[in-house]
Amino acid sequence: MKKSWRYLQEFLIFKLIYPVLLKYINEHLITPNDEMEKNKKENNVPNLEPEYQQLPILRLIYSILFNYLHENFISREDLLEQCQEKNNFYQLNYEEAIYLEPAISYQEIPTAFREKEGKFEFTNPFAAVVKNVELFGIHGIGFTQEKKIILEIVLDRVDVLEHTAISTLRQGFNFQYLTPVKNIEHIDLACSLVNYWSPLYAHWIYEALTRLEVLEYYSQNTGKKPKLIIDKNPPIWETRSLELMGYRPEDYIEWNGTRARINELVICSKRREGGRISIKACHWVRERILSNVDSYANQNLLLSPKIFISRRKANARRILNEEQVIDTLAKMDFVPYVLEDLDFADQVKLFAQAEFIIAPHGGGVTNIIFSQNLTLIELFGQKISHFYYTVAQGLKFDYACMFCEAKNEDIIVNCQELTKMVHKMTKTKI
Prior knowledge:
The structure is a single chain. The chain has 430 residues and is of the alpha/beta class. The protein is 38% helix and 21% strand. The strands form 6 sheets. Strands 2, 5, 6, 8, 9, 10 and 11 form a 7-stranded mixed sheet that branches. α14 links the parallel β17 and β18. This is Glycosyltransferase family 61 protein. Keywords: Glycoprotein, Glycosyltransferase, Transferase. It comes from Nostoc punctiforme FACHB-252.
């Protein structure tokens, strides 16, 4: 009886009532406000409070949904135990720990940074094979035959699982959801790189490409090569990065956005834990991509070792006095670059030879993974994030942060203070 009730819940929540209800609420009853738009621009896991305040019934709906999710997911620990028992488990044989030093700044260091200081030990990376998995919805939520949700597929985070489910249901009802399993797409052997954040540049580089190391370890031990499942209509940088990693179009397929049955799904562990990225995984990705980049990069691209990253084409965190900043930095031989104007391979080439980078917080800073001996000054406004601090510190780069005047999502940089910071970091490096 309990099993039947769980199946009925799964059917009602994911395949019939909730998709219709949440789509209707989202399109007709919720009025977007400034806070919602800000969350959307910042690419965070959305804050649900503004929706609760507008429509209290949503609190009840989400409570029922979240209770179901919390009772029916397989944690990393449970996944490891189950796969080890069935001998469907492959683990890289090395241990890794990093030590993060305090960031350099003239201003008070935020708590978000302080909490990451010190030593951190990573889990040994692994690949676990689960049979007869159904991938469901736009972000490919993974259900086992027992209707359990595999948490590792959604970045091993319960909050991401919650918002993945909400995002999926808001897309509305699709008749493919009710198609009998025998009639949906079947894939024999695959590894999914699709999740809630995989369409975002930083998350793709640090949380998708880094998983390929252990996938290749699985292939070396089994002689099998799973198909990669990537985002539907992927951006060019996603497919280009796979090319530079040595993968060809025949090695991956685009997610259909609805449902598929995977006979054997290879689940590779996330290499970012506790807000810190595995440095061994970063080195592996960097070496692989740098070994192939010369075949793709523009040989005529001007490469300056001193780089200022412009966000003039972004939706948020633009520098409102950018021309003044560029003029100030030009006196110290910095050259501005708009990364949206560069192919992925050119960005790799640019960052690989960089010695000093100044940039507002944003996706472009992701490319420091390709740098080798770097000083980085990261500029912040309203949004404060430890993401690149932990990467830079883990890679043993010289890192400083500067907190600027915020104008909504954009910033105004104090050029005098920035000049002082450049001189301080130059002396520190010498």
